[in-house]
Amino acid sequence: MRTWGTLTAVCLGTFMLLLDVTIVVVALPDMAGALHASLTDLQWVVDGYALALAALLLGAGAAADILGRRRVHVAGVVLFAVASLLCGLASGPGTLVAARALQGVGAAAMFATTLPLLGSVYQGARRSAALGVWGAVSGGAAAVGPVLGGLLTEGPGWRWIFFVNLPVSVVEVWLTLRVVPESRGPRGMRVDWAGTAAFACFAGGVTYAVVRAGEDGWTASASLTAFACAALALVVFVLVERRADHPLLDLALLRKPAFVGVMAGAFAFNGVAFGVTPYLSIWMQTLLGMSPVRGGLTLLPMTVAAMIVAVLVGRLLHGVPARLTIGGGLLLIGSGNICQAVLDAGSGWTALVPGFVLVGAGTGFVSPTVAGAALAAVPGERAGMAGGAVNTVRQLGYALGVAVFGTVLTSRMTGALPHGAAHDLAGGGARTLRGNVSEPALRAAFASGLNGTLVAAGLAGIAAGALVLVLVRTPRPAPTAAEAAPREPAAVTPRR
User: Fold this and answer.
1) pLDDT, tens digit (0-9, with 9 covering 90-100), for 271-288
2) Do residues 369 and 240 make contact, with C-beta atoms less than 8 angstroms apart?
3) What is the pTM of this model?
4) 142 with 16: CB under 8 angstroms?
5) What is the pLDDT of residues 126-170, one digit of tens each?
6) DSSP letters of 140-204?
7) What is the widest separation between alpha-carbon atoms in the chain?
């Protein structure tokens, strides 16, 4: 217990918080029916959690360095459990979205302290082994989420995808308090609360603007106002970070092309790899009539491919430049999305399998290497900041991906369905539409919307992959002393 207790506690919390990113995907149609939720409501059920996690991750890490990492971690678990209970008891979409955002706050406190807690306990080879186990658990959470969500939704009901967190949280708190030692960061640190608030306003504002654009149009006053507020918050964030003694993000790092490339790749990765998945799940359950369990199982080709490739990358491609694994992985993900854009009114889920495999293979290349590439692109004293930044942009990319691709989906469906019907159908309201619109028309409209969404995701992935290949360059190793030393001219033997 003394050797692996900390790793067990940290991995249990990480598994739980990352599971809640994907576990809701297959439950969205049942949530829509039970709570009379629209597409916008479902988008916020997914994005409320991811946005709070992304917006507060860096600030929570800085607070933990001052207040104590174990203390902040336990507080995050308690808040996460309370929010999970509120999610399960929600009587309407508004209360569910608010509780999901509260879950994200707790998850930020948990996630921000995982790596520092491991780093304070394990050193050398044991640290490498611990990080390897932690990475495998993180990847496993994404793979298990849809299947477990389907089992719980089809069994006791969708509310149990939140209730199941309660006993796990109790075990997590008990184990953390018993075996994890307290640790803190260097003395004299301060929390950049102004930067945290500005970044949260920017992330929330731009996501809200994209969602409103899907409802009202890109040029509507509400959409433009939200975009303007997000831009203002971004400007404030930059000004605050330039003057802060202990900034959330050292803006000087943005002068390094390799760091910018890795951040762009990480941002695009979660969005293009997973941002369309909620709408594929709604299509399979609402129009193809699949059960939640079967809907979760259809994603196995992608998750299995990701796990197999990730293992092979770790064993066979050690030392390969990150620009190739990240850039090439994003190209595979983009190509996989485009391969899925072949749907019509008569298509079944098997049409997605080749694209799923490509997306999974690309995920297996990117996921294990992107954090290490971020650390390698910055000086050693900025490693903690770079690790927090890459996790932040990944979650923000997922939240924006869900918002953007939902907007693309409904815009493509709007011309083929009555006014407002696109949001109802994408929100799981096919039963109410079938009396007014024929089944072939519903299937054709959703297939057309998905095709446009998948093409947009594919092009974004390919563009991000190309950007990574251009910006992320591996520095040439410095010459050794023998290589750098001037060579003596070869002796010339005189001829006789």
Assistant:
1) 999 999 989 988 898 888
2) no
3) 0.85
4) no
5) 776 777 677 777 777 777 888 888 888 888 899 999 999 999 999
6) HHHHHHHHHHHHHHHTT-TTHHHHTHHHHHHHHHHHHHHHPPP----TT----HHHHHHHHHHHH
7) 108
